[in-house]
């Protein structure tokens, strides 16, 4: 506890455009090496970059979503460094005048069993092009260069050094990932490199204002690696200082096999890159009309949807956060809500965030690909809400529809299953009374235990009644009948 951890993240989100940021070459993942690199990407003499309007609109969307200032005039600069997979010998980026300035993102996570929330301040977000990729495998000791990624549009999102633990950093990365996917500006595929983080980590004595010397851990492409890399780096720096050493500013890589970071190169400062405005690109000018146009096409944001679910539909903040955890689940729930009606909102929320979420997560599919369509789930929720079936029977029907995966089935499949299998809930009081009498007569020991003050015995009797009706009895009626007959 003597040390305070200070973390800032730089995240590269690959923008979901069909062509590159300064050329018309495609951005599809998985193409054969060097088949999606045009003369502009290869920096052949005489070629000139042309700004992709769709990439700028992605930046505007993001800026609006985080409450940032959209710069009316931003400038592209050349960031000079040599890498074999950087054809120009420089990267076109933004430096002094980025397109998005400021903003903030609310994050939530759990620590010590209690929920935590925090607002992370953003410094900037700027547009830039990606480099190519060096391939070191299967080249007989040589390195191959694939320039398919060269020129792919990126939005680099930079935070203030606001985070104080690996858990906070992961919570921020998850929230940012969910937001850019929600906005439709990035597919968020971390395995394909569409969303990757650099973590700037330092430590300082608790209470000290001055920041410690930071190390930057590059290209972390999973939340688990991000957390483990930060935790290792924090331990490394503390042990180094306590042993009398000094942390040096450097770039490090995380090795997941050895679960450690290792030095890659000394950390460059801005002047080492010799930034200067790119003479081939005019300033990016964004007027109020363009911003208004983009704002009009924005989806409802997670915070606004959470507010609607709690204020209009009476859901808890916990449920609302679960249902807005991703655009995928939010779309699905809204479709269920539209089909089932506001009165069933809480029950629908329980099913979407409970049984359905467990099923799609187990099978590794999206909510959009769920075998149980929103209309079908709405019909199922409706039949539970109106007492036609019990929750237990509802789960059996859900499993049947899910397993059938019948794309041609509509919402009427729920009623067909109920009628074909005779699953309607038994609510006839005389029939239930007869069943309860039989259960009491057959379970005298449980009756005696209940009258002796053992509440668990009552639950056992309810269970026996439900078993006798194969789960078709109305549980509330069964409980009321039992208590009346037991004098409780």
Structure description:
The chain is of the alpha+beta class. Helices cover 40% and strands 20% of the residues. It has 16 helices and 17 strands. The protein has helices at 39-42, 53-65, 166-183, 223-242, 288-296, 302-311, 317-323, 327-340, 345-363, 374-385, 391-404, 413-420, 429-442, 444-451, 455-468, 475-486, and strands at residues 3-14, 69-70, 73-74, 76-80, 90-94, 100-101, 104-111, 114-129, 133-135, 144-146, 153-159, 195-205, 215-220, 250-255, 260-266, 276-277, 284-285. The strands form 4 sheets. Strands 1, 2, 6, 7, 8, 11, 12, 13, 14 and 15 form a 10-stranded mixed sheet that branches. Strand 13, helix 4 (223-242) and strand 14 form a beta-alpha-beta unit. Helix 3 (166-183) packs antiparallel against helix 4 and helix 9 (345-363) crosses helix 10 (374-385). The longest helix is centred in the middle third of the chain and has 20 residues, at 223-242. The two termini are 55 Å apart.
